[in-house]
Predict the 3D structure of the following.
Amino acid sequence: MQQNQNNRGAIIIIGILFFVFGFVTWLNGPLITYVKLAFGLDTDSKAFLVTTAFYMAYFFLAFPSSWVLEKTGMKKGMAMALIVMAIGTFLFGQYATHRNYTMCLLGLFIIGSGLSLLQTASNPYISIIGPIESAAQRISIVGICNKVAGIISPIVLSAFVLKGVTGLEEKVKAASDQQLKDDLLNEFASKIYTPYVIMAVVLVLLGFWILRSSLPEIKAAEANVQPARDNTTKEKSSLWQFPHLILGAVCIFFYVGVEVMAGDAIGTYGKGFGISTDYTKYFTSFTLGAMLLGYVVGLFTIPKYISQQAALKISAILGIVFTLAAYFTSGYISVGFVAALGLANALMWPAIFPLAISGLGKFTEKGSALLIMGIAGGALIPKAFASLKEHYNFQLVFCALMIPCYLYILYYAIKGYAAGKTIPLSPKIEAV
């Protein structure tokens, strides 16, 4: 009973962390709109450097993060991550007021670096703090916190920074001279300073709180091993000897790519139909609302009614169906199907991550880092969409990028998750 209470306390703390990095991560959608106007960018491709800088940090910092965690432990590593995020957040707010796009991208890269460390620690932590068979259920719990934050953050940024943005766009276009245009854009750019400074302060305070919290330290090498009758973990001496992990990292790459496309690129997608920025700036919240619904479904169905891999299979099929529906419709209906991809994507991370790190034992931290590197899919796939849509129909590009991703995720759900394993995951129901 005491162990269950400790686990629940840890889940609450990790849930707060997931809320924090959900809030910061899902600001990227409206930030694309913000930077395109504030910095006078002439193409969506340049504006999508927001997601490129943010998510590429995961690729470069994931393995260094695992080395840091081996030295500091997961608890201290999480606290350090929040401080790093605070530094990046402050830099972005500071240089946005000067309309220095390069330094703002550096700030986003630093935020992504902190998140890389935070996710490299928190995701395996929540997966192995209880039975691996019910990990998707625990990830659904903290995922709800993440998506609630994701719904709120675009609304907050839109209310305080992007209010009346369509009217401002028209004023900038009608400005008679460059000085007047610069004055309008400088005033607009400065609106983001206060929200980002407040976020930096909150992140610092949270870092110190985590350090002093009752969050228990977990030794992954002891908590995440295959059952004794399976000697494969003992025989393996390299991370690369776990095929289900390698295939899982590729799966994460495609999953995060489609997640960011549905969440951050939906505003740009909507503008392709001529929908006003005053409306498209809220579209990310619709996607996150659909994801929240998916997490609630996962909370009550996994593993009681369906297994983690079955949930992943259903999710991939839904992704294919909704993508095709978005392609064959137009206007708000098409945008609605893109938002519905949030429902399809919701259970993917909760399923892929525990399936991929299952049984890694002493390789859990490095295996987690490899999976976190896969988050770079959020940097490359949306950027490819922004670049290709300048030359081809945006709906065709969207569909052509999304369908192959979902097909691979479907493969992993059917076969890839079991590659190299000698026993299946137990279907028994375990307590959270």
Q: What stands out?
A: The chain has one domain: 2-418. The two ends are 12 Å apart (CA to CA).
